[in-house]
User: Which sequence fits this backbone?
RNA sequence: GCGGUUGUGGUGAAGCUGGUUAACACACCAGAUUGUGGCUCUGGCAUUCGCGAGUUCGAGUCUCGUCAAUCGCCCCA
């Protein structure tokens, strides 16, 4: 069988790569604006890094690329960015300096899931984590960073959903209440939800099948189980968003997949039809206990991760990218079939900052002109026997089709005048 | 892990109830035009229909399997 890429993993070819570059650059700009520093952690971690005690999410139980090397440690291709960053934060004792520590990352993540639109087995996340400070204004600021990044990129059809899970004790109490409530209706729940009832009752709330059933309406609400502090905290986050003019929707069924979140959780979704079943562009939230659980100091953190492929998919649907391949300054036509003088000219051009392409192939002048056109070359330099012998270049301007013969040492000066800024 | 749909050249695709030379268009290459881009014209470009079996005198067309893509469920960025 012919060789092919692994299922769910895709090549990023030049046309698409330009879009990734564009998105990456804007993201890096926002990191700078908000004082986050770019970091890189390994793609592979010990499996323990991703396995929390009493974690019930499917992602951790069955959707990871996990393997064992030399019958020793179990390793896992990272399914998300936060755990690795926190491991690094603890291992490198970053908590001993100025707080919060604000880190950003761009990297590949791996999840063993069935691929579909907006879901790949290898995908890229752009993320940030702010560690070591718990303040509702910081929460608002983190959301603001992501929101304005996505807005500045050019996406229009987006909506910010936010919720609070309360602190650990609020959350526990709520979870118990939900479980008790749904237990009464166990037989009425769909099969998936009967399963969720034991594993993760919060997830029942946003089940698509059971959503409209009668007993849903009276299910306990998180807002009734929040401690006074948790309630005040959430209100302060919302006030922060109001202040920043960020529109949001409070969604009490928003619980997020990973179990470590406490207090603020949020998701930014696309409302564009092209998003298919995967409409979440980015999501994140605050985690009070994760750092400590992983062996670090008792510090809270907050972060989010953006799915870059999804972002690009939507960007394409909303037409925010320039499709044009970058143009060339000069295309050098070689009529002599690989004469060193041709390379000398091309190199001189490149050394002076002109994007230059050379034809090395032996083919007709006509074919070379067509090639130059495909590259969208502004100038076409023709080198044949006469030019080589006289150390000149025939230069044709593709805009007005005018043509001049220049001595080699005049060429750069001429171009500087024509296109140099 | 579960379900639906699809799979013909570089691309978009035609191919009727199985009948033997796999349309057409674009792109690409060459030439007409041996130093000039467009147009036009001429010619070239799938030993073969994702892959493997089977049914048949005969399979791109039917059956099974397999791989892949795609959409949805689950889960999630």
Assistant:
């Amino acid at each position: 069988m012919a060789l092919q890429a692994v299922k769910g993993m895709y090549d990023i070819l030049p046309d698409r790569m330009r879009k990734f570059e564009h998105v990456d650059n804007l993201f890096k700009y926002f990191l700078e604006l908000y004082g986050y520093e770019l970091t890189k952690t390994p793609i592979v971690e010990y499996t323990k890094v991703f396995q929390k005690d009493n974690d019930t999410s499917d992602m951790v139980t069955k959707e990871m690329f996990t393997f064992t090397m030399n019958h020793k440690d179990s390793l896992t291709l990272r399914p998300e960015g936060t755990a690795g960053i926190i491991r690094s934060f603890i291992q490198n004792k970053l908590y001993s300096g100025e707080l919060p520590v604000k880190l950003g990352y761009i990297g590949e993540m791996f999840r063993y899931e069935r691929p579909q639109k907006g879901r790949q087995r290898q995908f890229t996340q752009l993320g940030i984590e702010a560690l070591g400070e718990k303040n509702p204004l910081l929460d608002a600021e983190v959301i603001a960073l992501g929101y304005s990044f996505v807005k500045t990129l050019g996406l229009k059809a987006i909506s910010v959903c936010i919720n609070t899970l309360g602190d650990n004790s609020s959350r526990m109490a709520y979870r118990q209440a939900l479980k008790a409530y749904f237990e009464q209706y166990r037989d009425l729940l769909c099969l998936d939800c009967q399963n969720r009832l034991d594993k993760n009752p919060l997830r029942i709330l946003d089940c698509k099948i059971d959503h409209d059933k009668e007993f849903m309406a009276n299910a306990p609400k998180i807002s009734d189980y929040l401690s006074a502090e948790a309630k005040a905290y959430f209100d302060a986050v919302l006030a922060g968003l109001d202040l920043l003019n960020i529109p949001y929707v409070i969604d009490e069924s928003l619980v997020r997949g990973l179990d470590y979140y406490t207090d603020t959780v949020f998701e930014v979704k696309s409302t564009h039809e092209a998003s298919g079943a995967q409409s979440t562009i980015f999501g994140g939230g605050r985690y009070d206990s994760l750092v400590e659980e992983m062996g670090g100091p008792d510090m809270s953190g907050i972060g989010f991760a953006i799915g870059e492929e999804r972002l690009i998919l939507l960007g394409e649907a909303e037409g925010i990218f320039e499709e044009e391949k970058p143009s060339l300054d000069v295309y050098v036509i070689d009529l002599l079939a690989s004469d060193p003088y041709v390379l000398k000219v091309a190199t001189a051009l490149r050394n002076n900052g002109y994007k230059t392409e050379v034809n090395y192939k032996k083919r007709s002048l006509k074919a070379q002109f067509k090639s130059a056109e495909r590259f969208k070359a502004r100038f076409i330099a023709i080198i044949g026997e006469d030019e080589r012998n006289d150390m000149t270049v025939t230069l044709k301007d593709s805009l007005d089709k005018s043509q001049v013969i220049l001595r080699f040492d005049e060429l750069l000066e001429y171009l500087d005048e024509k296109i140099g800024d």
Notes: The radius of gyration of chain A is 28 Å.
